[in-house]
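Hi, here's the filled form for the chain we discussed.

Project: internal
Contact: R.S.
Residues: 141
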Amino acid sequence: SLFDEPLAIAVQGLGPRQQVTLRTSLRDETGQLFQASARYQAGDDGQLDLARCPALPGGSFSGLEPMGLLWALQPQKPFWRLVKRDVQSPFLLQLEVLEGHGERPGQLLAQAQHERAFLRDGVRRVPVREGRIRATLFLPP
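And the returned structure, exactly as it came back:
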């Protein structure tokens, strides 16, 4: 998906009202780790849709925040900022579903990797150098 588009996150196959912790992580271009986590409880049908299910207190955020696992990413190194320098390569987002809500994560139940791209297919990137001007022009297909 593109970095500025909403990402729908859902988990299926859980037990009725099962408590789980969802965790996201990514590494920036320098290798620094960013992580966020949230505690959830599946519905009676074992489904968990972040657009309809609020995060419980105790994680990086709480409440109904479908994109919370992305905006709440925090660096492991203090005062580090998530900056993308090479927009031609995507960020690789790791998603994990862990059992329970304890301080120490429980058993890994599921995991996935998702690419968050910055350029739509076909967009051309043209460097601009004119006098003292330095810029980049992005042209649609």
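Let me know if anything looks off before we file it.
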